Task: inverse folding
């Protein structure tokens, strides 16, 4: 191309009958002479350092052919800052990237149908997709004109699968502002630049290849492999910035999606994409942290890039490396409450382990247990139970009844039983795990504390609040001393104690603890994390109990909307939120009877479907509907429903459970009023219900649909590096909704493997 340009200039200047090898020299001599007059010479895209500055055996460097004259000037356009300094010293003008307004004007000038620009939103979106690049805008305009597409149609094409976008960006077009024989497609232009970068700096080319295998946005420099020196890293990244392939925001790097697609296409054309995926996986496995709570900030920075890698087919086939890294990724997703994403990865890990190691291998059982935990956290308790029973029974047979991993399975199953309202079964398993933990590990070991907290949770669900309080205070005191006041396990214990205080009517004490836990979780976990939402919902319940209904309504609505979005409309925690908000409305008298009944019926019907007709939370919904009917004067219907509810509560919860006693007392009161033929007044149990209904059964805002949700501040396990090395009992016995995984050296397998959360 440069040879042809010099030849064209020679012809324009009237220089004829010269050998091709002499063209550049003759042009230089002519322009350096007085007879040339005034002239301006422009070299566009002078990016190749080797071509301009390096001589070889066959030809001198291009720099040697630059004319020297006071009558003429030379302008270079380049993305290579180092070359700019070499060629022009300090006579450099930096040209900013094209802004939105300029890009809009370029698009408008090139489109045949100007009416397409009337949709300002889609126009702005398309320009952003094209990175405001004039060449990309010109290519898009040519395609739109030729195919008579709308801007939204072209924008949609750009968002299609990667190969579709590559084909679109590879479309050639005529650009009157460029040489006729030059290839105009954006992706072709970038591929040429990639080759130039590779010639200039292998380190820069390596970083380009690395970024092509991860997410293109907000890449921490700490994720990138180190070069020999910091200077090499800075030089390499600076070169990518100079070519406008990357941009920097603080210590993070970003690459536009189109450049990212072109980079991946380049790697595939060179048949090195799989090689780079393998290299990136090795680096990711090296720097990606475990899910210790102190690492939360780091793993959140790395997760988008680790997830992008985890879904590359070229990575999935590398089984050993894939299993190891994907385990850590899924752990952190679970710790962040991203249960569905964790489920997808755990499911894949389970299938790979089943095919690779067999159904009874420890790693396979661990994968199954982890998958069960994600089911449990999504409210899919029957699916969780099925897997957990299978894992527990297999471990009892293969490892023995008291093996740490078997005990982990027992604790997991107990947690699911609690969620299902099967509290007596849960208590039996919780007590079994706690006693072994105390004997083997000691009373203050973190896993022992977790098992105590689990038993306290079961007591709480059974209405044995004094017993629950004693255990919770014990756990908090030891946790503060051993783990620290702001450790997640300590916060969980504090939340549990607050729920117990609330059920005991000690609302000021509950509020103080709940505010402390909520604010800390907002800071550490984020405002939309499931644990944070639990804290907010619990505080709303306390506000309701205190008669602070406007404050309760604000929090209830916030939690309900976020849960609908994050968890789905039929998730047990979402149903709890709906019921809680309905209770607040009821207390405020804000909505008419029809609306009230519609929500009450909605909650009870979904509860029957999701949880079962005799689940404690379904029974709570039945009681609330009965109260609603009674308030409308439908005493006969209310009594029939409350009688059914009372019988089921006595059967499921036991006649001495607070909820069972409340239903029985309310029913007796209504019957007495009916017999006396007086207008029924509010029974003590009904007043109690409106005070505690937020949760709606025992006063805990988070218990309506899922028995654990309010008292769901369950103790989490300690991070792997701080767990006991005791070979007999290393399981993590917890009933926390998060998926917190640990590593353990399995006596059975002799290598590191997954250990699911309890």
Result:
């Amino acid at each position: 191309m440069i040879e042809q340009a010099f030849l064209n200039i020679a012809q324009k200047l009237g220089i004829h009958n010269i050998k091709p090898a002499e063209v550049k020299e003759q042009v230089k001599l002519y322009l350096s002479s007085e007879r040339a007059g005034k002239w301006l010479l422009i070299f566009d895209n002078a990016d190749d350092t080797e071509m301009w500055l390096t001589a070889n055996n066959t030809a001198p460097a291009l720099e040697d052919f630059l004319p020297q004259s006071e009558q003429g000037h030379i302008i270079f356009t380049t993305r290579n800052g180092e070359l700019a300094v070499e060629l022009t010293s300090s006579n450099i003008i930096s040209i900013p990237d094209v802004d939105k307004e300029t890009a809009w004007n370029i698009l408008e000038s090139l489109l045949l149908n100007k009416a397409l620009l009337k949709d300002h939103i889609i126009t702005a979106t398309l320009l952003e997709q094209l990175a405001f690049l004039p060449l990309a805008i010109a290519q898009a305009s040519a395609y739109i004109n030729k195919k008579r597409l709308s801007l939204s149609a072209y924008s949609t094409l750009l968002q299609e699968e990667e190969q579709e976008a590559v084909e679109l960006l590879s479309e050639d077009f005529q650009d009157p502002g460029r040489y006729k024989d030059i290839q105009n497609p954006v992706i072709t232009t970038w591929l040429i630049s990639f080759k130039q970068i590779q010639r200039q700096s292998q380190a820069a080319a390596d970083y380009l290849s690395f970024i092509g295998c991860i997410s293109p946005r907000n890449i921490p420099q700490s994720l990138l492999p180190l070069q020999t020196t910091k200077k090499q890293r800075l030089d390499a990244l600076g070169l990518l910035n100079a070519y406008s392939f990357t941009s920097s925001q603080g210590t993070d790097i970003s690459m536009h999606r189109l450049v990212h697609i072109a980079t991946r296409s380049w790697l595939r054309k060179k048949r090195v994409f799989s090689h780079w995926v393998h290299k990136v996986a090795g680096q990711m496995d090296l720097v990606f942290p475990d899910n210790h709570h102190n690492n939360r900030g780091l793993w959140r920075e790395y997760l988008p890039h680790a997830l992008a890698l985890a879904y590359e087919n070229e990575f999935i086939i590398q089984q050993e490396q894939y299993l190891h890294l994907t385990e850590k990724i899924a752990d952190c997703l679970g710790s962040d409450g991203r249960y569905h994403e964790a489920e997808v990865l755990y499911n894949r890990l389970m299938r790979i382990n089943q095919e690779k190691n067999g159904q009874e291998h420890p790693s396979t059982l661990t994968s199954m247990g982890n998958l069960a935990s994600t089911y449990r956290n999504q409210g899919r308790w029957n699916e969780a139970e099925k897997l957990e029973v299978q894992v527990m029974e297999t471990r009892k047979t293969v490892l023995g009844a008291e093996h740490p991993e078997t005990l982990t399975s027992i604790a997991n199953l107990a947690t699911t039983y609690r969620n299902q309202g099967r509290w007596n079964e849960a208590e039996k398993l919780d007590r079994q795990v706690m006693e072994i933990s105390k004997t083997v590990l000691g009373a203050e070991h973190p896993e022992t504390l977790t098992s105590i907290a689990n038993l306290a949770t079961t007591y709480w669900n059974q209405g044995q609040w004094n017993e629950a309080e004693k255990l919770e205070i014990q756990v908090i005191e030891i946790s503060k001393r051993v783990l620290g006041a702001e450790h997640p396990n300590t916060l969980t214990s504090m939340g549990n104690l607050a729920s117990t205080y609330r059920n005991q009517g000690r609302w000021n004490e509950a509020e103080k603890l709940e505010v402390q836990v909520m604010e800390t979780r907002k800071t550490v976990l984020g405002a939309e994390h499931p644990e944070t939402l639990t804290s907010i919902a619990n505080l709303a319940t306390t506000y309701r109990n205190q008669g602070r209904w406007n404050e309760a309504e604000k929090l209830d609505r916030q939690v309900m909307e976020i849960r609908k979005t994050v968890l789905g409309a039929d998730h047990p925690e979402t149903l709890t939120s709906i019921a809680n908000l309905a209770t607040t409305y009821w207390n405020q008298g804000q909505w008419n009877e029809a609306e009230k009944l519609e929500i009450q019926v909605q909650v009870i019907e979904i509860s029957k479907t999701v949880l079962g007709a005799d689940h404690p939370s379904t029974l709570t919904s039945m009681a609330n509907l009965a109260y609603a009917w009674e308030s409308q004067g439908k005493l006969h219907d209310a009594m029939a429903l409350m009688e059914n509810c009372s019988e089921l509560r006595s059967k499921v919860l036991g006649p001495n459970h607070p909820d069972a006693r409340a239903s029985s007392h309310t029913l007796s009161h209504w019957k007495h009023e009916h017999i006396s033929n007086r207008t029924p007044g509010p029974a003590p149990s009904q007043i109690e219900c409106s005070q505690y209904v937020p949760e709606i059964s025992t006063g805990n805002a988070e218990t309506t649909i899922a028995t654990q949700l309010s008292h769901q501040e369950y103790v989490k396990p300690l991070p792997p590096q701080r767990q006991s090395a005791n070979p007999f009992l290393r399981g993590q016995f917890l009933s926390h909704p998060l998926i917190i995984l640990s590593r353990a050296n399995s006596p059975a397998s002799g290598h590191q493997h997954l250990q699911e959360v309890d």
Q: What stands out?
A: Strands lie at 39-43, 72-76, 219-220, 247-249, 252-254, 742-745, 752-755. Residues 319-483+723-755 form a domain with the Serine Threonine Protein Phosphatase 5, Tetratricopeptide repeat fold (CATH 1.25.40.10).
